[in-house]
Amino acid sequence: MGRDDPAALAEAKAHAAAKLVPVLNGQSLITTQDKPRAVILELQEASEHLSTDDLVFLGLQDGTPVFTAACKESITDLVSSGAEATWVDLRRDGPKLIGGDAALLALAQALVRWNRSNAFSAATGEPMVSQQGGHARVAEGGKGRIVYPRIDPAAIMLVSCGDYVLLGRQSRWAPGRYSCLAGFIEIGETLEMAVAREVQEEAGVVVDPESIRYEASQPWPFPQSLMIGFQAQACHSQDTAKREAALDQLKSCVHPLAQHEVEHSLLAELALPTPAVDTVELEDARWFHLTWLERQLSNSAAATSEDAIANGLTFSLPGSYALAHTLISSWIARQRQNRSHLWKEEVESVDIDQSGTYKYVLLRLQNRQSKHQSRLLVRGRQSAGYHRDIVQSEQQVHTSEETEVKCVGGGRIAFHTDERRIEIYGYSSEYDQAPHSISAALVRTRYPFLSVTVSYSGY
After folding, report:
1. Is residue 250 in a domain?
2. Which of 11, 143, 184, 310 is deepest in the core (most CB within 10 A)?
3. Average pLDDT, stretch 155-165?
4. pTM exceeding 0.70
C-alpha cells in the first residue's frame, strides 16, 4: 500500500492486527532479555494511550501494517501487564538490539520527533497537519508548501599518518571514549571540503585533499543526521632536521638493508603533525598507533586491562554498530595487509615493567638467513641486576636456527605510574648507551597517554 492513499491508510489503522511501535518521552520499549528485542504492541489495545491522533505509518511487516506515535504516560499500565520490558534511551541501548529492530525503533523515533517539531509552519506560523502517513506535513486546509523530513549531512573521518590515526573525544562522552572526528557540512561546501575544514578546526591538523576517499555511510536519527564516512591522510610534519637526526640514529641500530623495515613504524612518529585541539569542540585529540588499536579491538581483556592501568585510564572505541568502528576496523585491515610482508610482526615491540626504575635494553631480533629482516625490541625488568640478564633472557626465548638476538645498547627506564610519565636515560657499561629516542618512539606506541621523555645523561 502507498502512503499517498488516504483510504488505504484509514483501512490500515482500523486493521484488527495493526501494530504500534510506541514512543514515550523520547524513549523506546525493548524486552529485558539477554538479547533484547523491540516491543511492538497491538494498535487497537494501545489506541487510548496515544497522545496524538496522527499515527505515523512505518510500513508492512509480513503484510501487517505497523505504525508509531507518541504515547501518554498511561501506556506504562498496558505494558506492565504484558511482556517484561523497559523504556530505554535508544542512543545508549540501541546497539544491544539486532539490526532490524534497531533500525525500526530509530525510524519511529525520528518520525515522531519530526512531526512534533513541525506542528506549525516555520514560514507563516500556521498549524500544520500530517500527510502521507506522517511522512509529510502541510498547513491546515492543504494550502501552501508541503514540508518533508530533512536530514543533516555530517562528515565523519578517520585521519591517518603512516601507522597512526587521529582520534578525539568530547567531554560529555564516557570516560576514555575516543572516536573519529566529525562535523556537519556547511552551506556551499563539498563533502571533501568539510572533511578538511573540520579536521583543521577541531585538531589543527592539515589534511591532504587528494587523499580524501569516501568509505561508507550510516543514518543517525539523533535527531536527523546522515553520517558520511571518509578516510583521509594528514600532511606530514615538515621537521626534516629531526627526521634526518633520527635516520642517523637508526643506522646504528639495524643493518642498512633492514632500515626500510623499521622506518615504517619508527619514523612515522616523526612525520606526525602535532594536534592543536579546539577545546570548545573537543576535550582531547591525539595519535594512536596501529598496534595499540589492534590490542584494544582484540578479545584479550587482560591485555586491554593491563594497558588501561598503565595508561591511567579506561580506553574504549565506538562499538561495532557505529560507522566510526567500521572506519577504524577497515583501516586496520588495510594496514595489516600492507604490513603482511614485515618479518616477525607478532613479536611485541615493547615489553617493560609498568612501575619503578630499572634497567632496559634495545635489542635487534635478526633473521640469520636474511640480513634485511630484523625487528627492534624494547625490554625492561625490575628484577634484572644487570643489562646482561635481560639480554640473556630474551636470547633464550628467541634464539633459534632462524633468529638471533643482539643488543644495540642499554640504559634505564623510570616508569612513574602515578605521574603518568616515563623517563628513558642512562647507559649500559657492557653494551654502551642505547639510542633512547628510538626506544622512546617504540614505547609511545604502547603508552599513548603517558609522557615519554629522553635524556642522554645519567647512569
Report:
1. no
2. 310
3. 94
4. yes
